[in-house]
Amino acid sequence: MKCPYCGYEESKVIDSRESKNGMTIRRRRECLSCAKRFTTYEKIEEVPYMVVKKDGRRQPFDGQKLLRGMIKACEKRPVPVTTLEEIVDEIESMLQERPEKEMKASEIGKLVMEKLKALDKVAYVRFASVYREFRDVLEFKHELENLLKEK
Length: 151
Fold this sequence. Notes:
Order of helices and strands: EEEEEHHEHHH
Largest sheet: 3 strands, antiparallel
Radius of gyration: 24 Å
Oligomer: single chain
Distance between the termini: 54 Å
Number of helices: 5
Shape: elongated
Helix content: 40-55%
């Protein structure tokens, strides 16, 4: 934390107190250069991570919704739910690390498909059929042929 008096970037925390609502922490600091004391406040950033849908609408990222879709794709497959939860956590972490607070639904879909493809081919095809909105059996067949070529 930069000292407001001398600009030195090192300080030590003398006292920390949580606010009544638990959303802010008040810290009393002492500059290691000039020894002056100052107060800082830490607040939890509550910026929701947004998903940009195909039609341009924006909605908050919902990890549970993503998990439900993957569970549906993995129905009756030997894929543990904990593995799917890890995938959701990875995607959510990627969202949090991005400087912009939104991601296209298509990017999220591609990430999920990559993970499912490595995990279970049947679950991958099921998810892809919904995500890519296959219009007929030929599109579905084409995707299966691509999968077989990769083997």
